Amino acid sequence: MGDFNLGKGQGKGKAGCVWCARGECWDHGMWSPAKEAEYNQMMAVMMKGMMNMFKGKGKGKFGKGKLTPKGMNAETGEVSARKNPDADMEGKPGPNGEDPSTGRWSFESKGKGAAKRWKWKPTNPEKELERAMKRAKHEAREAEEAAQAAAAAAAAGAMP
Q1: Which residues of 128-158 are buried (b: 16+ CB within 10 A; e: fewer)?
Q2: pTM of the entire structure?
Q3: Cα radius of gyration (the chain)
Q4: What is the pLDDT of residues 43-52, one digit of tens each?
Q5: Tens of pLDDT along 84-95?
Q6: Buried residues in 62-97 as b, exposed as e (16+ CB within 10 A)
Q7: Which of 16, 41, 62, 149 is disulfide-compatible with 66, CB 3.0–4.6 A?
Q8: CA end-to-end span of the chain, whole Å?
Q9: 35 to each of 6, 18, 41, 113, how far by Cα in Å?
Q10: pLDDT, tens digit, 9 for 90 and up, residues 65-104
């Protein structure tokens, strides 16, 4: 380490170093065990504060502090019936006891990042009639095209 200034009990370290004379030198000073313990404690507190500063919000499958995913019953571990894609919702009444003939169940998402769930959609008679007309028109067009294709095939097969 080199020369140590042992004069006047001011500290130990390199001769001529002002900070060593004060007992505060980071390069040469020899700290007492009490000062070293105090320094270590101070550094531990600072590091703990810094580590807490960088803690995130806890993104993950279950979120921060949650033990079960959304829609799952914490006690039984079962998925909610409204979030089960395999549930048979045909003929079931609406969420407020509506007659099944007044609407239908649709399995869809509530938005970006949201889980899909069953949603009740009341029927609109005007839209239903419009859909039925489009469906009938489409089926008629397909039947006509199929008949033309069959006629063309028969005509091609009859010719030598």
Answers
A1: eeeeeeeeeeeeeeeeeeeeeeeeeeeeeee
A2: 0.36
A3: 40
A4: 888 887 777 7
A5: 777 778 888 888
A6: eeeeeeeeeebeeeeeebeebbeeeeebeeeeeeee
A7: 62
A8: 112
A9: 17, 18, 10, 54
A10: 555 565 566 667 676 777 777 777 888 888 888 888 888 8
